[in-house]
Specification:
Length: about 240
């Protein structure tokens, strides 16, 4: 609860800072309407580093897995979302955004007539505010994106054997975890304000405590959290804008 309070306080500070600039005209209404910049949809691709103490501990404790698999900690995948609304005051642009992200790490190993694949998928819903400094019609500096995230994880253990047949185990996180994400970057508008290309990098904070078998609902026993921390991430994002004025 304390994390949510701190995050919302930061959001309110950004909103109030933007609102105070709108008091220069009558009732502030002219500035508010003139500052409505755009909404838009976006999609991108990137990677996410993370720390998986629990999962890697299971691998190290199993001689067969330890011999064939490396530590998990680097996933890549896509994100898609929307800039709900953008408000501009002078050279500052504040944007409320929401997106969904899905990243995977897959490792596969074989021995004799048997192959085994471990697939970890992390799914994230994120919402929050972005603050940018407008350099020109073609360039922005993304000063800060501050987002609240809701994270879940799936793990698949898929074994294919010619002699023993195939088997598959699927695990899922027992609950969605609350986390936070912060990033900055550069934005280029080749066709302003309709098309934007963004390169960003940042750091995410989240953890997944427990995983559960999807079939028998038995918790996966690990030493420590299954995923005990987030890490650095980067992405390239394409945005299609919908101007209001």
């Amino acid at each position: 609860m304390k994390k949510i309070y701190i995050f919302l306080t930061g959001i309110l500070i950004l909103i109030n800072a933007n609102r105070s600039n709108a008091q220069d005209d009558c009732c502030g209404m002219g500035s508010i309407f003139s500052s409505l910049l755009s909404s838009g949809i976006f999609g991108g691709y990137g990677f996410q580093q993370y720390s998986a103490e629990g999962l890697n501990g299971l691998i190290e404790a199993n001689p067969i897995l330890n011999e064939n698999f490396e530590d998990f900690g680097f996933a890549h995948g896509w994100r898609a979302g929307a800039n709900i609304i953008g408000l501009r005051q002078d050279d500052l642009l504040a944007t409320f955004k929401v997106y969904y992200q899905s990243v995977k790490e897959i490792q596969e190993a074989g021995s004799g007539d048997e192959t085994q694949k471990l697939e970890l998928q992390m799914n994230t819903w994120a919402l929050g505010l972005g603050l940018s400094y407008v350099i020109s019609n073609n360039f922005d500096i993304r000063l800060l994106d501050a987002l609240m995230t809701f994270n879940s994880v799936n793990l698949t253990n898929d074994i294919h054997s010619v002699s023993n047949g195939d088997s598959k185990q699927e695990f899922e996180s027992t609950e969605s975890n609350l986390g936070f994400s912060f990033d900055a970057g550069m934005v280029y508008y080749p066709f302003p304000p309709y098309i934007a290309i963004e390169a960003l990098g940042g750091y995410s904070f989240f953890s997944i405590e427990t995983m559960r078998d999807k079939e028998d609902f038995v918790d996966l026993q690990t030493n420590g959290d299954f995923i005990d921390g987030g890490g650095f991430f980067a992405a390239a994002v394409l945005t299609i804008g919908i101007p209001f004025n």
